[in-house]
């Protein structure tokens, strides 16, 4: 008996020790190993782990401020907690009355929304069939919302739009649209179709731009009960977008119980949206941006004509790779795209084209293994899988430069080339440590600009190109007359040999160049 008692006592002691050993271990609804393999990371970083711990804890009601540089895992730092919160809610509230959307992610641009949505989609595709959207499920023999209701075998498909399938609305939790799902709401798409899609398919996660979100908040109370609100790249919300955020973060629109995560609020403008400024978890990424895998260089060309020739030569040698060509000016990048269109297949991602077309090009380019995209800065949120980044003249700021080249961090042997078409004094200080490369020898005959294409460029873009060149050169410090002369030279270098575009008198007065443009015979009668 003593030995039996002793054995039991020892077993209880061991069990107690075992419990103590594992009592500090957190168990999540999502499989972190699968998350790591899906996104090709060895494991979660310390600040990603901490964000997940804070958000998923029912005892810790803190909001979170995250400071993380580009390509440090900042997007996953809020997506992984989002997956956890939503998955837990789906499993716990599977047969209860539908409360509305569960998580809201606010981003500054359509392109950023698409990039985040692509990562959400990547995670959903890694899930078992039973946890994906539209998965078939077996419901109990009674309705937990209304016991007297008859069992439904499945709702009919009533609408299908852009990969979203909308089903007949139910009073209870969706019966045959079970699973983690998401939707992107942003400008460039039909607002009416978005309303129909959201009302019928009821996605768990909403990724939205501020303008379109404000429109939806006026027409829907589905956002009232979100459990988690994230704002990515807070420093980008300026001007009109900042005032929109004031409209969004009201008690009528966002529940005071919803946890908030703000990413890179460098100026502290979002602190007023914290629920309790004294109860905040501040997380800083210990990861550092590494540019070691990106070979950076600057190529100085004598003029725009030589810059154009070098650009097409580089493109001809790298057609088998994935290449992004950037310019600060959407007008300039549009002109380059039009001139190259006859010679190579490429995409255009620019604010100069319709939002729908830009979004389609953005999605298509992201999915391809190779190809060329002519981009204005709105395309900076592209997923980091580009082999070569080409800059037509140096970006205005180091922040823009690093945002562009971070798109190449995910590829080995990737490159960044800055094509400067003016004197070395115009190379900014932040590029002083980047090595200079000589103009490559060879020819770009394969990419000779065809007269027909030049005519089309003149018709569609000549006016805007002239306006952009004049103002750009004046801002660089040139006298007005010299700026106009250099603009004319640039247009001729780009193939505008005859019939130079002209600017209206009203526009010339507005920019302060009426006299100089009149003397150069570039004013419309």
UniProtKB/TrEMBL annotation:
Molecular function terms, GO-annotated: ATP binding; hydrolase activity; RNA binding; RNA helicase activity
EC number, UniProt record: 3.6.4.13
Record carries keyword Transcription regulation: no
Domain Helicase ATP-binding: from-to ranges: 55-285
Keywords, in A-Z order: ATP-binding, Helicase, Hydrolase, Nucleotide-binding, RNA-binding
Catalysis performed (reactions): ATP + H2O = ADP + phosphate + H(+)
Role: RNA helicase.
Domain notes per entry: The Q motif is unique to and characteristic of the DEAD box family of RNA helicases and controls ATP binding and hydrolysis.
Family: Belongs to the DEAD box helicase family.
PANTHER family to which the protein is assigned, alphabetical: RNA HELICASE
Protein name from the UniProt record: ATP-dependent RNA helicase
């Amino acid at each position: 008996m003593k030995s039996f008692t002793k054995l039991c006592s020892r077993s209880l002691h061991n069990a107690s020790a075992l419990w103590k050993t594992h009592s500090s271990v957190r168990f999540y609804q999502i499989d972190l190993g699968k998350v790591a393999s899906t996104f090709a990371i060895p494991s979660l970083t310390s600040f990603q782990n901490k964000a997940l711990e804070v958000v998923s804890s029912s005892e810790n009601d803190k909001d979170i401020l995250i400071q993380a540089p580009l390509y440090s895992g900042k997007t996953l730092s809020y997506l992984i907690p989002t997956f956890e919160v939503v998955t837990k809610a789906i499993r716990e509230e599977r047969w209860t009355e539908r409360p509305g959307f569960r998580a809201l992610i606010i981003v500054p641009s359509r392109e950023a929304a698409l990039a985040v949505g692509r990562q959400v989609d990547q995670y959903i595709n890694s899930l078992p069939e039973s946890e994906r959207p539209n998965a078939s499920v077996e419901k109990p023999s009674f309705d937990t919302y209304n016991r007297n209701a008859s069992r439904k075998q499945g709702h009919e498909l009533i609408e299908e739009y852009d990969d979203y399938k909308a089903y007949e609305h139910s009073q209870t939790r969706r019966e045959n649209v079970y699973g983690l799902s998401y939707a992107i709401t942003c400008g460039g798409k039909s607002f009416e179709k978005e309303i129909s899609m959201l009302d019928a398919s009821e996605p768990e996660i909403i990724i939205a731009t501020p303008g379109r979100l404000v429109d939806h908040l006026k027409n829907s109370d589905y956002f009232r009960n979100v459990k988690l609100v994230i704002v990515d790249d807070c420093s980008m919300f300026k001007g009109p977008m900042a005032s929109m955020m004031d409209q969004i973060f009201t008690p009528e629109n966002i529940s005071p119980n919803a946890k908030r995560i703000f990413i890179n609020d460098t100026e502290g403008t979002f602190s007023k949206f914290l629920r309790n400024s004294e109860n905040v978890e501040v997380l800083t990424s210990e990861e550092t941006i590494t540019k070691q895998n990106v070979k950076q260089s600057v190529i100085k060309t004598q003029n725009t004509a030589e810059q154009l020739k070098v650009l097409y030569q580089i493109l001809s040698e790298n057609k088998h790779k994935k290449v992004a060509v950037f310019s600060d000016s959407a007008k300039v990048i549009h002109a380059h795209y039009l001139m190259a269109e006859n010679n190579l297949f490429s995409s255009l991602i620019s604010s100069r084209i319709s939002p729908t077309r830009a979004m389609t090009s953005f999605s298509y380019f992201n999915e391809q293994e190779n190809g060329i995209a002519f981009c204005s800065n709105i395309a900076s949120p592209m997923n980091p899988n580009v082999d070569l980044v080409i800059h037509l003249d140096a970006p205005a700021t180091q922040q823009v430069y690093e945002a562009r080249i971070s798109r190449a961090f995910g590829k080995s042997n990737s490159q960044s080339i800055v094509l400067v078409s003016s004197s070395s004094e115009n190379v900014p200080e932040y590029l002083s440590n980047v090595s200079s490369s000589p103009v490559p020898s060879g020819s770009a005959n394969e990419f000779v600009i065809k007269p027909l294409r030049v005519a089309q460029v003149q018709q569609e873009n000549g006016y805007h190109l002239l306006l952009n060149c004049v103002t750009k050169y004046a801002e660089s410090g040139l006298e007005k007359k010299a700026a106009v002369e250099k603009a004319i030279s640039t247009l001729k270098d780009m193939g505008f040999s005859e019939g130079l575009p002209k600017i209206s008198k009203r526009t010339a007065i507005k920019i302060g160049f009426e006299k100089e443009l009149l003397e150069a015979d570039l004013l419309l009668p």
